[in-house]
Each structure stands twice: as C-alpha cells, then as structure tokens.
Amino acid sequence: MKIRENLFIDAVTDKILRIHSFDGEKSSFAVEKPIGTKARLREIPGVGGAVQALGTEYLSIYAAEDGTLKIYDKRQKLLCADYEGELEQECHALTEEEAEQMRQEGHNVRSGEEACRFQAAKKLFGDEVIYGLGDKTGFLNKKNYDYVMWNSDNPDPQVENPTFRAMYKSLPFFIVLREETVYGIFLDNTYQSYFDMGFGSSRYYSFGAVDGELDYYFIAGDTVAEIIEGYTSLTGRAPLPQMWTLGYHQSRWSYTSAEEVLAIAKNFRMYGIPCDAIHLDIDYMDHYKVFTKNDETFPDLEELSSDLSKMGIKLVTIIDPGTKAEEGYHMYDEGVQNGCFAKDSDGKIYHNAVWPGDSVFPDFTSEKVREWWGKQTELLTKQGIRGIWNDMNEPASFEGPLPNDIVFPGDGLPRLHKEVHNVYGHLMAKATYEGLKKYDGRRPFVITRACYSGSQKYSTVWTGDNQSLWAHLQMSIPQMLNLGLSGMPIVGADIGGFGSHTTPELLCRWIEAACFSPLFRNHSAKYTRRQEPWAFDKQTLDINRKYIQLRYKYLPYLYDLCYEETKTGLPILRPLVMHYQQDKNTWECNDEFMVGSCMLAAPVVQQGARERMVYLPEGIWIDYWTRERIMGGCYILKEAPLDVCPLYIKGGSILPAYGEMQSVEPENIKTLTLEYYPETLKKTAIFGRKPNAQEDSCYIHYQDNGVDFAYEDGEYNLYEFMFSEKRSNGLQVKMLHEGFLGKYEEITAVIC
Ligand code: MIG
Q: 476-508 b/e with 16+ CB inside 10 Å = b?
C-alpha cells in the first residue's frame, strides 16, 4: 500500500510488515519463496498528527506527513517509532590529514566510507537491548556499537567492535527487546550496509545501504522466540542434518597425506575417543585446484575413505571458489568455454589471486553456473567424500579486493560485484547444497564461512579464523548465540582456537564450552601447536574424551532440537533470554547458554579459574554432576575443577540419551535411555523453598534413518514420552507418528 512517494507498506501477516521504497515486485536472494500477503492492511481511526492510519489484527501503523512511522501492537503499546529529529554528525570524524597521520603509526582510522543511498533511523528509548546481526564480534547486546555488512576475511585477531565492524557474514537482521515489547527488523539489501545501533547518537539507531532499495521487514510478536519464527518463516529454516554431522570433527590446516589422515583416525580409536569426521584442508588438492586432488600425497581417495569408513570416520573436503586460471585444467577450460566466470567492466574474465595463484571467480548468480559447480561435487562424492566445506567465499582475494564494478553476468541478468558480494558465499553454498542433493542424494553437509540471510537452508557455518585466546573462547559464546538469534541454527567455532598456539588448559575449557555446539570441530592453523585431543598430557586427553563422550550421549537430544528447528527456526544454542525473557538478569548473559529448553551450560572461560558464578533463572535446577536440586532465581558459586563444565538440567525435564559409541551409525542404535529429572528426589535436600507438586513431564522425540530424505515421505517416528510423579506409574510412551521401521527395541527409563 502506498503511503507516500517512495514509501510502501505491505502486511505479510498480521505481525509482519514489509516496508519498502519501490512499487511492485522485487526478487530476493534471502526470501526465495513467494511470501504473498496473508493479512490485509485496513484503514483505522487516526491519532493526532498522523495523516494515515493502518492496521492489521495485531499492529497499528501511523504515518505522519513527513513519512515517519509509529508502530503499535494490539495493546496500543508503542513498539517502534521513526526518529524525528535531525541525524547527528559523526563526532569522531577526522580531517583526511589527521587520519593519515594516525595511520602512519598504524592506527585503524575510519574514513572514506561510501555514503548511504538511504537510511532509516528509529528512536532509542534507552532501555532496550539489541540482539542478532549474525557473527559480529563482541557481546550479545549490540547496542552502542556500529557494524558494517560487507563479507570480510580479516585475519587479525578478532576483537570486539569497533575495530571489527565487518565479519565474514551478512545477516542484516536484529531484535530489539524492551521490558514489555520486542520486535525484529530484517533489511533485505545485499549492498554494503550499515547498522549503527546507538553508536553515533544515544537518541536513535539507524540502518542504511550504499545502493539498492529500502526494503525491510518489521516482525512483531510477544517473545524473542516468536520474532525468530517470523524471520525464519521468511528466510527459511535449516533442513534436518545427517545425524553423523552432529558428531565430533577433527580438522587441521592441513593433514597433508593419506597416511597422516589414517594415523589420526587410528589415534581416535586407540584412545577410545568418538569421532565422525576428518576434514581435508586445501593441501589435499593438486596446486589448490578445486575438485582435484594431489596424486602423490592422496593417491587413492576412494581407498582412504573406505579405510576410514571401517573406523566409522568420514571425510570432508574444503572447496574454495577461486579457480586456478590454467589451460588444461577442466574447471578453467569448461568455465571459460561456458562463460562461467565474473568479468571486468571491459567484458574480459576478471583475475585476482588466491591460494592457486592466478585465479578466476565463478558467477554463482547464474543458475547454469550453480548447476555446473554442483555437478563437480560428484567428483568428490564418488570418491567417498561426505561433506563440503566452503571457505574464502566472501570472496577473499590476495591482490586487493574485487573492484565494485566486476560484472556477474547472471543468466542474462548482469549484476555488479557491489550487489553480489554479500551473497557470493550464500550462492556458492546453495550451488554446493543442490549439487550434493542431486548427485549424492543424502542430506547435504555443507559448511560455509561467508553467507547471507537464508543461507541456513543450504549450509551450516563456522565463525572463521578465531585464535587460541581466552578472549576468543569467551566471545565464541555470544557469537554463536547471535548467529542462532539471526536464524542460523547449526553453528560452531574452531575448538581450541584456529590461529596462535593453544594450551592444554584452553583446549580443555574449549571442548567443555563447545560440547553442545551443533558444529563440533577442533581445527587449527598451519604453524600452530598441534591440538588433537592427545596432543598434550593424559589429563587433557581424558577431559577431551569425557566431553566428546558426553556429546555423543546427548546426540538424540541435539537431533530432536534440529527437528524442532525445522518447525520453528529456533536455534539449538539459545541465550537464556529466549526462555526467561521476563528476567532481566538473563538479557546480557554472555557466558551461559541454554541447549534447547532443558539444559543450561555455564562453562568456565577464564584462565586459571576453578570456580565460577552461575546465574540460574527461576525454577528448580539439577546439577548434572552432583544431582543436587537447586532453587533458581539467583547466582550461585559453583566449584569447577578443570574437568568440570557446570551443567544444569531444568527440573521436570526428560532427556533422551544413547549408549556409548565411537561414531554415529543410526542403523545400530537399538536402545534409547530416557533420563527423567524430577524436581524433587525424596532423599535429596532442596535448597530454598519447597517447590509445588510436580506436573506431568512430557517430551517429544523424533527418530528417522538419519541419512536421507525418506522422512519427507513419512518415514519417521515421533514418540511422546510422559512421566508422572503423581500417578507413579512411571514412563508412558505414545506414538504420535509411526513411519520408520527402525523403532527402538528397548526404551529404558532412569530417574536422575
Ligand atoms: O587464508 O584453508 O578460515 O579454516 O584452515 C586461510 C586454509 C584460508 C581460512 C579458513 C581456515 C582454513 C584456511 N583458510
């Protein structure tokens, strides 16, 4: 609906508005399914000053003469108001001369940023916290910082903003929470965009982009969770992963020969440490040529994968976009022949340098190119490769950044680099996903470094090149949580740290903190100290084994959370605020998180610490290690020797668990254990007030073959488990759906 010149509002649903500057349709890289409009905007009685008043069942929108908007919810609570004053000048602006002088000493001084083509500014009330924005460094709360969406490979040690305003990913979505209101905004614009969350002024926050159109979604709801559901209803949800991908992955830049890979695999088995995958970094290739292998160091990949698979271990290979410009190399020849590469403004194929040296860049905006690229995955899967890890797809380049005017020809719809940059990784992940799906048939396992909103449909992500620093262990928690709040549920950070040298203690605390991160991979850089679980002493080995085993024990819980995510978009790792929004103590909790709704982890992330403060929200919590019942709503001091990661189970929870295993073989899983954590145990002392009598506990469990898409045809089982203290007849099992033949032969219950 037209509000004024260059301002249109559509109601996508009663709670989701699309606010845009163009008339008619516009395609999106993120919102791929036609969204239509399920709700109607109707005129409502106006209020003072508003020239137009519109409403849905849930929202009222008042537009003033100058086009500023105020949005209220159905309780007539003001959710969001355009800022009405003049925007302030950046107070820290330097003259070019001053800036140059500071740069001489090596200071990172901002200047020369392209002005925004449009900007929207919203009033800050002062009491809000802001979440989301993807993988940005720093803390959960993004307020008071400013960010740039421009996918960047910056190998410097990541520090909190303002030095690191751009990261690898562009997820231009954020959530604004206040005491009684919450909403989200998704700016669907792929050009370089800016998010000033109260950095330039405490009176407003603003967002804008250097080009393209104003096009954002306003998402309302009652809870943070509902906002994420809304956002992922637009941009999509991560499909179910293969179950083994939730196991432990070992990586290094690089394992450089088949023998070395086999030796690593054998060590896992010798030390009795579960492991499902080993990753091959760039050195497995022939001169870094993608979709080739080094015939000397990896003479027979097929044999290697088959030897590994006897040990239950799968191979994942890295694939970068930069394609070596070398005649006689099939990717280059075919690509040149079929016009698959980006061009410079004169129409010649554009060259830059990456690992293979002189390189060219596939045009993933073209469906034809994506199909071609996807087909190449068959070269790998035929040799037994089970997953593809996409790196350097910001795209990174060694000879300066790709100029803005590089042309991606598309399929007759050419676009400039400045529009494509932030979706380059997204489209590469899509090509990889679709290729694997078509040519392998199993649920594709893709990891990508760069992405855009909607990439969750195609790929998992990791947080890129962190370092073996305690600060990076600490930061990995809010980073992963904000990714989850931005619709990206299957995330991980390099365990032990990628760059720089880890220590035994850091590795121990990292494996503890990462124990439940959906992507569970230890990875390290060349020239850094080795950091496989056995790289240090026996204690470090034992702690690694203990937490990797704990991970495998709760695989069915993680898998259930993945299933839940496909229905709701809710992440696996959740900030406490997602379940305890009324409790302000949770709003900026950066060093604890929930795993689903039943488990709270409070890892130790300080060097030398052997105890820590833990905040437990209201309710009864059961200390996982001691089974002590603790009344929440307070901070407690928890002793945490090096081998203890404080973990708490919400009273009344039911958790599904598997028995010990060395790797995930769904077909061999015949029994399921249900752990029931009643709020009271007769003989256990309760600290604090005695809780009310327990309600029935209920848990929904999902089961399928863990591998392919048969579940889409109904081949899955859905169980409902119930425990009742009052009726004291123990466990009840109800089948909500029965379609998978591999039903458990035995389900045992334990009271914890
Ligand atoms: O510029 O492939 O983030 O995980 O090991 C380094 C080598 C390129 C960056 C990735 C890292 C990977 C490394 N890559």
A: bbbbbbbbbbbbbbbbbbbbbbbbbbbbbbbbb
DSSP string, 193-253: EEEESSSS-SSEEEEEESSS--EEEEEE-SSHHHHHHHHHHHH--PPPPPGGGGSEEE--T
Pair 518, 657 in one domain: no
Active-site choice (128, 215, 363, 465): 465
Full residue range of the structural domain in which residue 500 is found: 464-552
Identify the pLDDT of residue 92: 61
pTM: 0.97
User: DSSP letter at 283?
Assistant: G
Known catalytic residue at 296:
no
Q: Which CATH number goes with the domain that contains 361?
A: 3.20.20.80
394 is catalytic: yes
Backbone CA torsion sign across 157, 158, 160, 164: positive
Atom 6, ligand 1: residue with shortest CA distance: 392
Tell me which of 394, 440, 591, 704 is the catalytic residue: 394
Expressed in angstroms and rounded, the spacing between residue 145 Cα and the centre of ligand 1 is: 28
Q: How do residues 42-71 score in pLDDT, each as one tens digit?
A: 999 887 777 899 999 999 999 998 889 999
**Residue 245 in contact with residue 387, Cβ under 8 Å?**
yes
Long-range contacts of 477-481 (CB under 8 A, 24+ apart): 477/513, 477/590, 477/591, 477/592, 477/593, 477/603, 477/605, 478/138, 478/139, 478/140, 478/575, 478/590, 479/135, 479/136, 479/137, 480/517, 480/573, 480/593, 481/140, 481/571, 481/573, 481/574, 481/575, 481/593
Give me the residues of the chain with pLDDT under 70, please.
Answer: 89-93, 111-112, 682-695, 725-729
Predicted local confidence at residue 294, as pLDDT: 98
Q: Is 330 in the same domain as 318?
A: yes
Mutate to test the pocket of ligand 1, among 151, 281, 448 (most ligand atoms within 8 A of CB): 281
Q: Is 622 in the pocket of ligand 1 (CB under 6 A)?
A: no
Three-state DSSP class for 560?
Answer: helix
The distance from CA 506 to its chain's CA centroid, rounded to whole angstroms, is 23
Please provide the DSSP assignment of 451-494 as one string: EETTGGGT-EEE----BS-HHHHHHHHHHHHHHHHTT--SEE--
Packed helices 504-513 and 470-485: angle between N→C axes, nearest 10 degrees: 20
Residues 452 and 491 in one domain: no
d(Cα 450, Cα 394) in Å, to the nearest integer? 5
The whole-number pLDDT of residue 686 equals: 40
Q: How many helices (H) and strands (E) does the chain have?
A: 11, 45
Burial class, 654, CB count within 10 angstroms (exposed 0-12 / middle 13-18 / buried 19+): buried
Q: Does 391 contact ligand 1 (Cβ within 6 A)? A: yes
Q: Is the four-CA dihedral 663, 668, 671, 672 of positive or negative sign? A: positive
Do 474 and 526 fall within a single domain? yes
**Among 200, 221, 201, residue whose Cα is nearest residue 71:** 221
Same domain? For 603 and 477 the reply is: no
